[in-house]
Amino acid sequence: MFQAPRGTADHLPEEQKYWRYIESKAVDVATRFGFGRIDTPAFEDSNLFIRSVGEGTDIVEKEMYTFDDRGGDSITLRPEGTAPVCRAYLEHGMHNLPQPVRMYYFCPVFRYERPQAGRFRQHHQFGVEVLGDADPSVDAEVIDVAWDLMTSLGLRDINLLINSVGDPQCRPAYVAKLREYYSGYHDKLCSDCKTRLDQNPLRLLDCKVESDHALGNGAPKSADNLCGDCSEHWTKLLTYLDRMELPYQIDHRLVRGLDYYTRTVFEVQPLDGGSQSTICGGGRYDGLITQLGGRDTPGIGFATGLERLTLNLKRSEVQVPDGPKPLYLVANVGDDARIAALELSVRLRRAGVGAILSSGARGLRGQLRQANALQIPFTLILGDDEIEKGEVMVRDMESSVQESRPLAEFIEEVTKTHGRDASAE
RNA sequence: GCGAGCGUAGCCAAGAGGCCUAAGGCGCCUGUCUGUGGCACAGGAGAUCACGGGUUCGAAUCCCGUCGCUCGCCCCA
Questions:
Q1: Complex confidence, ipTM
Q2: Cβ(A98)–Cβ(A67) under 8 Å?
């Protein structure tokens, strides 16, 4: 038997209501903020990600799905959404559009990781990017998009964490300071942290080993070590967030694993989340477009994982609306009735009314049972009696009230009230 | 890449060397009710007990290996 590859999942029809719910809320929020949708390919030139995400990062080092295609080009399945959007911005000369350019996307992303709760090799992200404006009000707005989405989804007990990681001006000095601080405690560090000390001192801050975590409390803070420009950006951002009444918390340990982040970084985390708790993460990336060969263009964005959102919606028992269902099941008894039922269901559907044709193979009782199991609101019954009179029996499945009605009249009425052109729509 | 736990029908699951040609429940199908659902009752289909090897007179059950799944670490949505 074949199985879905490790770390991938089938999202069955019964699961779809969560996805529809998240997608519709996300589109609603993004549209309200003036974002336009963009779709980029599922795979890109490998160098796009190596150049943007960063050579030393886990994503590039061990998680990319990279292969040579038949023409010998190195291809990588998209491991994150920001770089492709930036590539598209450059490729299509979007700097000629009114700035900033606001875009959102839904896309599958691929990372070769060991799957566990809330983590997959293929997962799906919704994300937004704003390109071409460095003002801190844009940071505040993007954070607001994220927060607006989370709250309109009905998620409670979530934290909004922010920090500033500086820029190439001030970060080197800060990293040196951090390294110096931790070097003083070298013997106390866990083994992972000893290598972090060499390779990525920022990551020392969010170590989960308790003793190291305590050390982090006394560590120099990035936000206290910003250069003039970054500092001004940071304080303005905080002012804006206060004015917007966003319930943010400054988290001096918040650092993110992609090299391209500058200044503002932020995450949304559930209070009781496990280890894969981040449901939304993003930040500013003012150097990225230049990295990719474009002129100096600031950018900021975030992404959120649909699987993790779904997990949290279920965990916090948020009620999401059911998907749309056909209004009618067309039951039939006898060969003539089957043809009449076939014609009736076709007419309904072509008029925009949902209808399932029963094959009639299992008797009226079985067909009603079917309608019940599928939670179809009305069953239309056609048999010899109805055919003879040119009528159709309309049965309300909830009240069990049924009524025989002239076929033509019935079709005209439901088309008017439930069809494509119904005024209620 | 590292560590731990677990693999019995579509799903949940009993079983812990012979009473297993594997219990029970959900779901599915059929009938009681020959054109009327939900409830009830009766019946039915569906399992090489993950796979391979070993121990034993005898293995779903014990041992080894493989594969898979889950959870955790690293890291991330």
A1: 0.87
A2: no
